[in-house]
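Retry 2 of 3 after timeout on previous attempt. Resubmitting structure tokens to design endpoint.
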């Protein structure tokens, strides 16, 4: 499957090199501005190697990169939490979410598969299904943490509201409507607003 990292060492090296190159080039030039020729040069592989690993070409590279980004997101969000207090657990989830998008400025577009369509490759549809499942499980995890902390509103609604607000703020930054300091301020407000609804939250936790 195009989305999965090959077990063969040589193919795995090519797979990862192309995805690394794709991430850099798409961030710099956009998906439409990135060509197969640019990918081959940046990854130092032959055109035939790209199509041998990504049958539909650039669109499959994008789909595989989106899935790899989702796996990275899940890994960071699912690592052991360095907190016992339920409110601090929720706060750490928020901080990890913010840190992930700060470190991966292309993630929002990739996770939404913004630049491609399912009609272009079956890999796009498969990536969408996998990403939707992975993100749904992350939302479930944060919702359980909110339930453990206690809240004065519907737990899942609180999580989804914060998620939407943070994604919206990141999107504004990507469109250069706001600068980095404004983005940081918006994310801090969303974080504080969510924690304020936790019944066990103190001023220190917020």
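Retry 2 succeeded. Sequence:
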């Amino acid at each position: 499957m195009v989305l999965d990292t090959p077990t063969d060492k040589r193919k795995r090296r090519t797979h990862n090199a192309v995805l690394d190159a794709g991430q850099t080039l798409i961030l710099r030039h956009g998906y439409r501005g990135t060509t197969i020729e640019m990918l081959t040069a940046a990854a130092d592989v032959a055109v035939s190697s790209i199509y041998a690993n990504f049958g539909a070409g650039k669109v499959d590279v994008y789909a595989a990169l989106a899935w790899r980004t989702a796996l990275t997101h899940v890994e960071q969000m699912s690592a052991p939490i360095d907190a016992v207090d339920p409110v601090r657990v929720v706060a750490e989830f928020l901080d990890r979410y913010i840190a992930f998008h700060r470190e991966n400025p292309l993630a929002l577009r990739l996770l939404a598969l913004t630049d491609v369509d399912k009609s272009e490759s079956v890999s796009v549809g498969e990536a969408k299904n996998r990403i939707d499942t992975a993100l749904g499980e992350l939302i479930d995890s944060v919702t359980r943490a909110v339930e453990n902390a206690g809240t004065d509103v519907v737990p899942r609604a609180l999580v989804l509201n914060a998620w939407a607000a943070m994604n919206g703020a990141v999107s504004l930054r990507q469109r250069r409507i706001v600068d980095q300091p404004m983005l940081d301020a918006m994310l801090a407000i969303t974080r504080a607003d969510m924690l304020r609804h936790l019944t066990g939250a103190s001023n220190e936790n917020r």
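Attempt log closed. The radius of gyration is 19 Å.
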